[in-house]
Amino acid sequence: MTSVPFGRLLTAMATAFHEDGTVDLEATARIAVHLVDHGNDGVVVSGTTGESPTTSVAEDGHVLRAVKDAVGDRAVVVAGVGTNSTAHSVELAQQAAKVGADGVLLVSPYYNKPGQVGLRHHFDSVVEATDLPVMLYDVPGRTASLIELETYEAMRRHDHVVAVKDASGLLARTALLTDMGYAVYSGDDVNTLGYLAYGGVGLVSVVAHAAGDRLASMIDAWARGDHAEALRVHTSLVPAFDAVMGVPNYGATTAKAALELLGVLDNRRVRGPLVALDDDEVAALRAGLAAAGLI
């Protein structure tokens, strides 16, 4: 049976900001508590939804420490350390180990478009920088490259490379990755049942900012063999999937607006180049969450 190294439901959580643009650590910790109170086994800090391309090494360390202090005694805390600079990623991984992360999320370098040899060099460098468990992250829509199977195979020589967050849309590869020994997590909320059907173990979510309990119940239903119930929950959440992830201005923007609608945050501020949802976009988000019975 495939291991479940980070639990079954994690959220790539948003990072809150003050009005002056600095990181709001108190509000960020409040997001983490909200997530763990609502079905999450763990959280990922400083991922794309955490606006990691705009945060500094020091800010990432402060966020990780604040979230560890808030929920580290009852949830897994994974640090996003992937950037498009190998040296920068190594620095983030070493900082994560010092602060006490339970693992790291390592995305392919974005924009640079390295070949598979470059990907392996990058991954090897970061993986070898610490002993922390590693979840590789394949999201070609953001990185413009695909982690090929031979690269996954090569990375298995590192015992602590244990999982994959897959947002490639190539669901059938899940079975092959599972055979290699990876625990595969869906990187797309709407595709979670498909990944589970091919042998995946769970989800790294964005929609769980608003639907954690329901997503946890869906995954639990699948794991216990009640596939009809899992499908029922999935179907009930489709309006939320569409509202949070099915619009051009999605991710951190929709996650923060959802948290504002739920009263977890008192604002929906993001850093440029992102722009906060306007009133019409918030109304559409509210309608989708309402249709899913979440507000």
From TrEMBL:
Self-association and partners: Homotetramer; dimer of dimers.
Keyword presence, Membrane: no
Residues given in the record as pyruvate binding sites: T49, V204
Catalytic function, reaction form: L-aspartate 4-semialdehyde + pyruvate = (2S,4S)-4-hydroxy-2,3,4,5-tetrahydrodipicolinate + H2O + H(+)
Pathway: Amino-acid biosynthesis; L-lysine biosynthesis via DAP pathway; (S)-tetrahydrodipicolinate from L-aspartate: step 3/4
Family: Belongs to the DapA family.
Protein name, entry field: 4-hydroxy-tetrahydrodipicolinate synthase
Compartments, as annotated in UniProt: Cytoplasm
Sorted UniProt keywords: Amino-acid biosynthesis, Cytoplasm, Diaminopimelate biosynthesis, Lyase, Lysine biosynthesis, Schiff base
Active site (record annotation): Y137 (proton donor/acceptor), K165 (schiff-base intermediate with substrate)
GO molecular function: 4-hydroxy-tetrahydrodipicolinate synthase activity
Top EC group: lyase
Chain's gene name: dapA
HAMAP family named in the record: DapA
Superkingdom to which the source organism belongs: Bacteria
Role according to the record: Catalyzes the condensation of (S)-aspartate-beta-semialdehyde [(S)-ASA] and pyruvate to 4-hydroxy-tetrahydrodipicolinate (HTPA).
Database matches in SMART domains: DHDPS
Keyword DNA-binding carried by entry: no
SUPFAM superfamilies documented for this protein: Aldolase
